Amino acid sequence: MSQNPNFFLSVGKQIKDEYGHELGKVVSFTLTPGGEFDAVFIDQGDGKFLKRSVEYLKFDGADITLISRIKSEANAFCGQIPLIWRKDQALKDLAEKKKISEEVYEELHSNFDGVLNQLKNEAQALIEEIDKEIAKCANEIRELNYALVHLEIEHEIGKIDDQSYATAFAIIQESLKRVNTEKSDIGLTKNKLSNILLGEASKPSEHEENKVEAEAPEEAPPTSNAPELPEPPVVVYVKEVGKSSI
């Protein structure tokens, strides 16, 4: 079987997730006995390695992007659950029209019902995993905002010079942008999957689907025992570098 040479060109290249987080460098691949690429090994740079299936990788020449496993699985459930439900409904219609026997209907309906329940249980487990990811993003956003506040304070009192301040400020802002995008994106994924489980999402038109996704509210992270602090704004201060003094 022929092999895509771009896969090999990716060895030694930086790999990022779809939100721009750098994960490490590609150091090797695994292939199936038939010669198909199966997974990549990623050196995280701290002595640890990741192994990720090519199922969740997007290749663009020598560049590789790791696609969210959660989003991939959620999209699969959003396609499979309505499909099985429609098949079961079609089966019921055939039985009511006397086109199939009651015995055949009961057997096939039981099969469809079993598969549907299994898919729903797996989808619910994925939603719980999504909740944890949303909570992690929310916590990271809070920590980055506090880091930004402390940076501003130390710069304001003259402990940090303008150049160092500007560099750190840009890094924190870029990180906040990425984490906010990730939190919003997986929140929309949860909304879509939750609607499927609630039976509220019969397949909409492309226009309607885009409208729903655009208007979907952002999910709040699960509450914890620790008291919640109000989330500071992404940009705490806006000023020109070099005008701070003591």
Radius of gyration: 24 Å
Distance between the termini: 69 Å
Please count the beta strands (DSSP E, at least 2 residues each): 6
- When the domains are counted, the total is 2
Q: How do the strands of the widest beta sheet line up side by side?
A: 4-3-2-1-6-5
Class based on secondary structure composition and strand pairing: alpha+beta
Topology pattern, helix = H, strand = E: HEEEEEEHHHH
What's the overall geometry?
A: elongated
For the largest beta-sheet, the strand count, sense and barrel status come to: 6 strands, mixed
Mean of residue pLDDT values: 81
Measured by DSSP, the beta-strand proportion falls in 5-15%
Helix content: 40-55%
Low-pLDDT ranges = 200-246
Number of H/I helices: 5
Describe the structure.
The structure is a single chain. With 246 residues, the protein is α+β, with helices and mostly antiparallel strands. It has two domains: 5-67, SH3 type barrels (Roll); 71-215. It has helices at residues 5-9, 69-96, 102-156, 162-197, 206-215, and strands at 14-17, 22-31, 37-43, 49-53, 57-60, 63-66. A hairpin with a 4-residue loop joins strand 1 and strand 2. The longest helix is centred in the middle third of the chain and has 55 residues, at 102-156. The chain is elongated, with a radius of gyration of 24 Å. Mean pLDDT is 81; it is low at 200-246.
